[in-house]
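call fold(seq) -> tokens
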Amino acid sequence: PAEAPPPGPEAELTVRPEGGDGASPGEWTVAGAPAGGSHRDPAAAGDTLAELAREVLEPVPPDAMCTMIYGGPQTAEVTGRWNGEQVDARFSRENGCEIDRWDAAAAVLGHEGVATGVPS
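ret:
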């Protein structure tokens, strides 16, 4: 018999993106173990959460040296629980460090106007 894949991370997250013009494409939920929620591609979001480093959900340290590359006005707020821990994360694309965080969580953040692979 085929072995079942291991369950993904436990997650109950709400994602609230904003396009930078004050408009929001709405909000969605992401659930893990098993993947679900109202996200357009819960499997992709679940796969990203399974590989995501905890640091991605933490603010960039104030003493971090970040390239001053502006990636766009998009922002996103992610709240809820992930792997038994409370999550209250803010994402932006205001510099290189923030863009790296965004890109690492892109399948979860899926945002119109940003090449994330997950349309919103």
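Helices lie at 42-51, 96-104, 106-109.
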